[in-house]
Amino acid sequence: MLRFQSYASGSSGNLYTVSDGQTKLLIECGIPLAKIRRALKFRVHEIAGCFVSHGHQDHFKAAGDLVRAGMDIYALNDTIAAGGLIGHRVHAVKALVEVQVGTFKVLPFDVQHDVPTLGFLFTSTVTGEKLLYFTDTYYVKYLATGLTIIAAECNYDKGTLQRNVAAGHVSSEVATRLMKSHMSLECLLDMLRANDLSQVRQIYLLHLSETNSDERRYKEAVQELTGAEVYVC
């Protein structure tokens, strides 16, 4: 059975795993290596590779240390260059060009952020199940079928953000950047409506804003729309 697990999510750092029982992959490495090792109960050797969405530190912090520790890293050329990564453990990937690692076929796809960024569709060749993962984007233009698990950014909602701007808690400049680089609850719900959810059993809400989000309301809204198990990370 396909399993997704969150260890860290948000602007302070992101770290997730996906496993089909035969291959286990890391998604993001935005916390220090020592914390990654503790999160994985010092079984880093079980990880077949790490897929990184983009070069911001909360997603990429430990990439160099992981390479030096012997882990394969998969990322865009822009991300690799930003981190100064070199060596045979570093693999450049491109949007819409599938790669295979162990028993996973991984399809990167482009998303909209303020630096070049990828989402990933993980398909297990063992179980046939699919995980759709994306974060740090205000929009996903692709549709997918046969999804089992969705791990999606749900950073803010428009009403809360507007109230925080009006109250002076968030500057208009920050709000503008947020709307052009992160996904709102409203956009996520539209995205979910557009996709095939007939086989989705779990949805994970990622990267919630500390000041512009409402965990309980977001979980209820996604549950009501999808009928899936919903977890806030």
Principal-axes geometry comes out as globular
Q: Provide the spatial order of strands within the biggest beta sheet.
A: 7-8-9-10-11-12-13
Series of secondary-structure elements, N-terminal to C-terminal: EEEHEHHEHEEEEEEHHHEHE
Percent strand? 25-35%
Largest sheet: 7 strands, mixed
Number of strands: 13
The tally of helices reads: 8
Structural notes for this entry:
- α7 runs parallel beside α8 (215-226).
- The protein is built from eight helices and 13 strands.
- It has helices at residues 33-39, 57-60, 63-68, 77-83, 158-166, 172-179, 185-194, 215-226; strands at 3-8, 15-19, 24-27, 47-51, 73-75, 90-92, 99-101, 104-111, 117-124, 130-134, 149-153, 202-206, 229-232.
- The radius of gyration is 17 Å and the shape is globular.
- The model has no long low-confidence stretch (mean pLDDT 95).
- The strands form two sheets. The chain has a seven-stranded mixed beta sheet with strand order 7-8-9-10-11-12-13, with helices on one face.
- The chain is α/β, with parallel strands linked by helices and 233 residues long.
- β1 (3-8) and β2 (15-19) form a beta hairpin.
Keywords summarizing the entry:
alpha/beta; seven-stranded mixed sheet; six-stranded mixed sheet; 233 residues; 27% helix
